[in-house]
Design goal:
Layout lengths: L4 H5 L3 H17 L15 H17 L6 H25 L6
Helix pairs in contact: 2-3, 2-4, 3-4
Length: 98
C-alpha cells in the first residue's frame, strides 16, 4: 500500500462511479442521453431536478471531506448538470411542471 501524493489525489473509484452514474441519470432525464431500453430520448424535469438537487446537496455536505480530485469531479458534475437543467427547463417547462 502506497501513501504517495498521487494516490491521495485519485478519486475513490466508488465515489467517482456514483457521481458518473448520477450525471448519466441527469443526462438521461434531460433528454441528452437516449434511454438504453428504448433508444428514445425524453425529458423528465422532475427526475432531473431530483438528481441535480441531490448532487448539490452532496457537494454542500461533503465540503472539506473530499480530496481535490473528488471535489473537482463533483463540482464539474453539479455545474454542468445545473447549466443543462436550466437550459432544458427554460425551453420545456410547462405551467403545470413549474
Amino acid at each position: 500500500m502506497s501513501d504517495s501524493p498521487l494516490d491521495a489525489e485519485s478519486p475513490d473509484p466508488r465515489f467517482a462511479s456514483f457521481v458518473y452514474f448520477q450525471a448519466q441519470n441527469g443526462g438521461l432525464f434531460l433528454g441528452k442521453i437516449p434511454n438504453p431500453a428504448t433508444g428514445e430520448s425524453s425529458v423528465n424535469l422532475r427526475a432531473a431536478k431530483s438528481v441535480v438537487d441531490s448532487l448539490e446537496m452532496l457537494f454542500d455536505k461533503t465540503q472539506g471531506n473530499l480530496n481535490s480530485s473528488e471535489e473537482k469531479l463533483l463540482k464539474l458534475a453539479v455545474e454542468n448538470l445545473r447549466k443543462l437543467f436550466d437550459e432544458v427547463s427554460a425551453t420545456n417547462e410547462s405551467p403545470s411542471e413549474a
